[in-house]
Amino acid sequence: MVQSLFRHASAVLLALTTHAAAQPTAEVLHYWTSGGEAEAVQVLKNAFEDAGGKWVDAPVAGGGGDAQAAVLRARVLSGDPPSTVQIKGQNIHQWAAAGALRPLTDLAERQNWDALVPDVLKDVVKYNGDYVAVPLNIHRVNWLWANPEVLARVDAKPPTTWEEFNATAEKLKAEGVIPLAHGGQPWQDATLFEVVVLGIGGPQFYKKALQDLDPEALTSTTMIKVFDQMRKLSTFVDPGFPGREWNLATAMVMRGEAAMQIMGDWVKAEFLSAGLTPEEDFICVPTPAQNGYILNSDSFAMFKVPEDEAGQGQDLMASLVLDEELQRKFNLKKGSIPARKGVDPSGFDPCALRSMEDLEASEADGSLVSSLAHEIVQDGAVRGAFLDVITQHFNTDMSSQEAVNLLAETVALAR
User: Fold this and answer.
1) How crowded is residue 141: how many other Cβ atoms within 10 Å of its Cβ?
2) What are the average pLDDT values for consecutive 10-residue runs of the chain, which has 415 residues?
3) CA–CA distance from 360 to each of 195, 289, 344 (Å)?
4) Whose CA, among 9, 24, 335, 386, lies 20 to 30 Å from 198?
């Protein structure tokens, strides 16, 4: 069994302090700013400081990370990159291709990351065979969260099909309840979209359309049905949805102002931070159709920086992230499940245990897919093309056929 990585981190720190008096420092650029996210960040900060490091917090508000990505680009271009960055998916590969990231393979070999990191994440955090990031967690995107007391007003249970969802939402509207809590931001609209693609088309269609960008899939009758369902969803949100942050939508479900929210399991961190109990105060179920698992994952990447103390801080941070106890504590707060294999599942709530079981099953049967909305696939121009069309359709009277045509055109131009 792999020994505690904290022990290795202590050895790293001892070696560093024999060569330099400066305190290992990490400026950590991230967008974990909601209540539950802030508690998870504190776990990382405490571990880093307990190991002798100096944590310089650099949060950028805005769920989804688009604002943080803009800050990161500006800082790298100005020659002032942060040392440690919360990053994911294709962004990792793009920065690695640009030569901006420190390879972590030497440390990975010493700590045997190949034995610790699940295969599903290795392609995410490796570039040309080298580790260039270290994973923190695994998030499932396709969750439906519900307030059981609100559903009980219309004698409803969490829907398992889109037909059931629509029927329940209509009943809730008739009772003056907001059926779907949502924030009108492009990444949130895209989250709904990819969940509907999976629910209506299934995993293989999802892969053809969103990962392979197959023109036939993008222009298919199935994709028209997806946009038809998106139009339905747009009628189930309240007029105040434009620009709303995701955690404020979650608060609407907590307060009973809205019945349901479709969002990844970072939502759970908000419920738990508020002292609510799963299966009592809130319900978590896979989104309608329950036929796959949409993967999202956060990692830390170390950008090339000149300062000694920053480089030492990067070494220390990277050496800590896959520690079993740190993975456990962080993910209990974050709402996600560990990125390290073999972490004891005891103490994780029913939502997390379901996520662990479904991830294993989806890997086995081929129903595991990567998130477009959350940049695991199709970052950059292609992702932007999807978001533009999805948001335009959701906020206007654009027909489903028009949306499909525009999507195929814009994706073809962006490739």
Assistant:
1) 25
2) 48 47 89 93 97 96 84 94 94 95 96 96 95 98 98 97 98 97 97 98 98 97 98 98 97 98 97 96 95 96 87 95 97 97 95 97 96 92 96 98 98 95
3) 19, 18, 15
4) 335
